[in-house]
Amino acid sequence: MAQNIYDNDQFFDGYSQLPRSQHGLAGAPEWPTLRAQLPDMAGQRVLDLGCGYGWFSRWAVEHGAVSVLGLDVSEKMLARAAAINADPRIDYQRGDLEGIDLPAGRFTLAYSSLALHYISDLAGLLRSVHQALLPGGRLVFSIEHPIYMASLHPDWIVADDGRKSWPVDHYQVEGQRTTHWLSDGVIKQHRTLGTLVNLLIDSGFNLDRLIEWGPSAQDLTERPALADEVHRPMMLIVAASRG
User: Taking the model in full, what pTM does it have?
Assistant: First the structure.
């Protein structure tokens, strides 16, 4: 079973203070890039993996999706989604992405925002998603960039000339990484970029787009705190399709 850190009171309280929790998709600076990878939502049957507060699920039906299945392992997340983003076209269910059994050929779009780096059996999940999509169906997701995950040291390295950089820790060593984010003991799964891409290919997906997301000049003007993200990529945005 995936770690259910989001039902930890300290973690959930901290998460609820984040801009993406308080302001929804508008609070996620990567959202415009993610949105650009999505197909026309009219008539889509959507699978939202790690749906969280349900911001994307509601956006999808508001933009034409006929149904959304939102899955999350966290009861606290699902309760918040049901409270603030309910819609009769959305079915929020508790589901562990480590071993989810998805119906074959049910969906036209699978979506996930910053959830897949928690999954140890990502190969199994991708195979399950592939068979759950109709031919031509799309998979669009964001995930922590492997370089970001391998940069766990809390402090900058400062060179003699004053330039700062992030240390990268054993990038080629894949597997579990335990870090502090909002609370201690948050478990994530580190994979190299090559491994991630090959998992997609081996699961039967065609890779359509791979974006190493970073803040734009406008992002930096509106959110100066994002300046750190210029130094190393924070997340990947991936679009793939089932042939």
Answer: 0.90
